[in-house]
Fold this sequence. Notes:
The chain contains 6 helices and 4 strands, in the order E-E-H-E-E-H-H-H-H-H. The mean pLDDT is 78. The chain folds into 2 domains: 4-124, no CATH class; 129-183, no CATH class. The protein has helices spanning 22-31, 61-73, 76-90, 94-124, 134-145, 149-183, and strands spanning 4-7, 12-15, 43-46, 51-55.
Amino acid sequence: MSYELINKDLNMWSCSISDLTMEQVDYFLCQWTDGSSISSLTIFYEPLEDKLVINKDIVGFEQYLYIIKAYISLSYEQREEYKFYLHETKFSSEASKNSINEFLGVLDRAMLIRKIKKIDEILGKQSCQLDKVQEFRYIESKHKNESSNHWIMSDAFNYGYIEGIRAERARRKVKMDSKVIVNA
């Protein structure tokens, strides 16, 4: 497959339909129930490589790029407003509304997976006093693979703790910056 890098910051790539492998084509076609052809594919996400790939052969390629860049940069509330705006102005027919919903759904899933990976990376660096105990590590890895509610809650608590520390540091920094400005 020959993907072409479009935007390094967003890890966005483009490819032609002819660049897809048969396995990928079969995978996409099996997911679609309405009998669409592979030429209607606009965007897909590869979670293993964290690549957001857009079909460069689609009509309106530049418009889709603009939508992606705008959509990813928005907050959740702003994305909801943007969806409404797209439905009301740009995509008025029912078929185009379904198409843009699928397109934005792929973007939402990609953003969610990226956020989860970021949180997992942060939690992986969180140490525990019992880290030095080999038995604890074995028990932890065994239960985490089983998706035990206790470990999920532990991860949620640890992530909340990390975010709380970050918020406190940011608050102190703002407070210190304001003192520096007042004293200057």
